[in-house]
């Protein structure tokens, strides 16, 4: 079997070996940002290198068996099974070499906003936030609240939170890789806590999912950013309501506004808000590039992520993904963070679309 078939894999193996040498140098860890970048790429290449080594080992074993069979025909009976093993390993390696979403190794920022339905929508937004928090806890991810506006009756009018993995996760297991297709409008049908006569209401909340950007991803001219500070109004520790620690950033060219008030200091809030602003600018760039590709392809279908999931809690129990048609009657489990089946269905759907 020609090695030319997997020339790109050879390049990745060499890159992996070079990264291994760099990461063994203690001085590289003096720059934590650089160390994280190298570690992320190293983890990304790991499965490809393992797949390449498995294929090469099988191919080498097959070549050796053919040489022995030329001298001893008794070895010939093993060759068909070994050829099948080589092809299986080759198919696996080809799958690993397929182009992947470059953001799949990132952490994620999720925004949830109450929509139509008033107080009931805010309560539902709170349910969605708890659903994602429970899911993150099950996967041992870290959750950081960035900013939130609570409703008088509970839940959230809007909330932003970062979900971060710990250590260096395998590709495809990061928060963004798992949650990126959760964005869109989530709709609920139920008898709300605010309803005294038992009538069924329908309300909705919007979910926005952003890959967390790094400084190297977006060149940000601070002359384009207006910085406003104001007094925090939510949780945050002693002094949160007595100092102008909350920060609002407005990116003048795009009109994007980001605020953060959950850290103790103005400096911390500004840094967190800046990270969110960079993530939103990165996502805006991605959407613009995708729109250009769609225009060239003649794709006028628009965004897939409008109304994407329906939660029916009355008069019967069902949660259904409106894109993939996957559904379950175990609504309490879903709202408690058991959403892996929906996520897997979303990944399959996107690959085939």
Architecture blueprint of SSEs:
Layout: H1 7-23, H2 32-71, H3 79-96, E1 108-114, H4 118-138, E2 142-150, E3 156-164, H5 175-179, E4 184-190, E5 201-211, E6 225-230, E7 246-251, E8 256-260, H6 266-297, E9 307-312, E10 318-321, E11 327-328, H7 331-335, H8 340-352
Parallel strand pairs: 4-9
Antiparallel strand pairs: 1-3, 1-5, 2-3, 4-5, 6-7, 7-8, 9-10, 10-11
Helix pairs in contact: 1-2, 2-3
Which terms summarize this structure?
2 domains, flat, 353 residues, 8 helices, three-stranded antiparallel sheet, Alpha-Beta Plaits, eight-stranded mixed sheet
Describe this structure in words.
- With 353 residues, the chain is α+β, with helices and mostly antiparallel strands.
- It has two domains: 3-96; 108-352, Alpha-Beta Plaits.
- Helix content is 43%, strand content 20%.
- It has helices at residues 7-23, 32-71, 79-96, 118-138, 175-179, 266-297, 331-335, 340-352; strands spanning 108-114, 142-150, 156-164, 184-190, 201-211, 225-230, 246-251, 256-260, 307-312, 318-321, 327-328.
- The strands form two sheets. The chain has an eight-stranded mixed sheet with strand order 2-3-1-5-4-9-10-11. A three-stranded antiparallel sheet has the order 6-7-8, with helices on one face.
- Helix 1 crosses helix 2.
- The radius of gyration is 25 Å and the shape is flat.
- The chain starts with 6 loop residues before the first helix and ends with a helix.
- Mean pLDDT is 85; it is low at 235-240 and 296-305.
How large a portion of the residues is in β-strands, by DSSP E?
Answer: 15-25%
| Uncertain stretches of 5 or more adjacent residues | 235-240, 296-305
* Topology, number of strands: 11
Structural class: alpha+beta
Q: If you compute it from the alpha carbons, what radius of gyration comes out, rounded to the nearest whole angstrom?
A: 25 Å
